[in-house]
Amino acid sequence: MPVSQRQLEERQMRQHRILTGALEVFKSKGLEGATMEEIASESGFGKATLYYYFHSKEEVFAAILENGWKDLWASLEPVIAGDESPRKTFNNVLLKIAENARNRPGLFEFLFNAPKVITFEEQPWKRYQNRMYGTIQGLLEDGIKAGEFPKINPQLLFKAMGGLFMGLVLMGDRKEPVSEKDVEELLNQLITDPTKK
Predict the structure, then answer these.
(1) What dihedral do alpha carbons 59, 29, 19, 97 form, nearest 10°?
(2) Does the pLDDT at position 194 exceed 60?
(3) pTM for this structure?
(4) What local confidence, expressed as pLDDT, does residue 172 receive?
């Protein structure tokens, strides 16, 4: 019997609730300390429902990362496809990331911090993460060529990215949305022209 649209939507809703509950558990207990029981309880389901969707807490953890990175990448695609200059596109990408961080700050912090603590063999979220990082690096290289960014080593700048993203996450805690001016200021703190030091 084919699955109806309504059943599909219900499954997606359940999975979303499980991942939202699990995020809270992982943030307070870490991957080691979390249990499937706590994840079920936090998301408001029985363990049977949880096991219907996920085999282990590691699978839940990976699903949070994969969905998070996939959604983030999907939100950035239209920005990247625009025909602005590299620096303007780069700024717009950062503004979009800040908007995502503002909407779901807990998830965001998790996306940028969690990969440091895990050594999963399968890391399906890397597809989206690598695309995003590759695009950002490409925008920087194009911007340097066009004279829109100082001539700095893109690898070096890439190392500053972690700080940049966490800065955007923290900015998301404020009352007003992050503006282009905020992004420019953050960028200028990180990207200083080595010839002007």
Answers:
(1) -100
(2) no
(3) 0.82
(4) 61
